[in-house]
Amino acid sequence: xxxxxxxxxxxxxxxxxxxxxxxxxxxxxxxxxxxxxxxxxxxxxxxxxxxxxxxxxxxxxxxxxxxxxxxxxxxxxxxxxxxxxxxxxxxxxxxxxxxxxxxxxxxxxxxxxxxxxxxxxxxxxxxxxxxxxxxxxxxxxxxxxxxxxxxxxxxxxxxxxxxxxxxxxxxxxxxxxxxxxxxxxxxxxxxxxxxxxxxxxxxxxxxxxxxxxxxxxxxxxxxxxxxxxxxxxxxxxxxxxxxxxxxxxxxxxxxxxxxxxxxxxxxxxxxxxxxxxxxxxxxxxxxxxxxxxxxxxxxxxxxxxxxxxxxxxxxxxxxxxxxxxxxxxxxxxxxxxxxxxxxxxxxxxxxxxxxxxxxxxxxxxxxxxxxxxxxxxxxxxxxxxxxxxxxxxxxxxxxxxxxxxx
Length: 406
Fold this sequence. Notes:
With about 400 residues, the chain is an alpha/beta fold. It has 2 domains: about 1-160 and about 350-400, Medium-chain alcohol dehydrogenases, catalytic domain (Quinone Oxidoreductase, Chain A, domain 1, Alpha-Beta Complex); about 165-345, NAD(P)-binding Rossmann-like Domain (Rossmann fold, 3-Layer(aba) Sandwich), CATH 3.40.50.720. Helices cover about 25% and strands about 20% of the residues. The strands form 3 sheets. Strands 3, 4, 5, 6, 7, 14 and 15 form a 7-stranded mixed beta sheet that branches. Helix 5 crosses helix 6 and helix 8 (about 235-240) packs parallel to helix 10 (about 305-310). The longest helix is centred in the C-terminal third of the chain and has 13 residues, at about 265-275. The protein is globular, with a radius of gyration of 20 Å.
């Protein structure tokens, strides 16, 4: 079967791989009808999140049809349409039972202290083969698959695999209450869904911070007040627009390398040079330290976090759902502490939120496909990666459609 396979930083290939097989009694094999490219995948391809094992199939978002099940999968039948939560969880341990599926004690083969297990990720997450493929093995399928009603299309469902639940989680742990003023840093697909989620939770005002016109336009369509950080200092703008108080809640939907550390003419020039350098994914190389070792920016906090802490009102709360590598160890803790900020962060426990969000989609309360900008065949995955990585105008979220297998 065909799959998108990681071979090294900047080196991904569409190639033939063996079909998956049942390995455990709780496994299922799903024939994928939709997958997607996520900003998290770009972290791995760029090398800003290290540890990817060559030969790993990429992708952690999937929708498909159950093709085979192990004997201990008692709630599904062959032929069921399902959405696949991005994080892997056993459903049995104490963490799963309290809804912390992303901190399952069992799923990650590296042990109880290892943290989140998910599809298509680096070695510390378990090196599970991902979902940008024609078929996939799903561990703990009785928990790791959610049946889809007929009313929900594949295009809608693929957005429930990761980005909508992640955004809802981000708004949830931001502790948004009716009337709150909220700043969302990053207007990629997760950021746009975070704006939608904040609206549904009753936020009074929502500010959207980014530098891409198409993404800011999409945020404005949802009623957000937009700030282009290339044209003005976002912290100064937020303080001015809130009467000097700051925002009550902030959501970092950016992560380690999607929002640039400085803005203004010099940064614009640097971005143009970087875009020129990265025209082909194979040209992307990780930054190195003087010893020639792979380096992850860890000597200064990421810009989105700095802006968020600056812009928050006293006693505000910060939600961090953007992806950061474990090697990053710095944070403006003194400033946050002196403002009495509340910090909540982590990997989304997708399985906790998907049933609720699925019902919102089924009833028509939410139409998630407004964020879906492109649908491409799996055979065009490498070209789609290039366009998505280059932030080409209009490329917000990309669905990949595997060929229909008989």
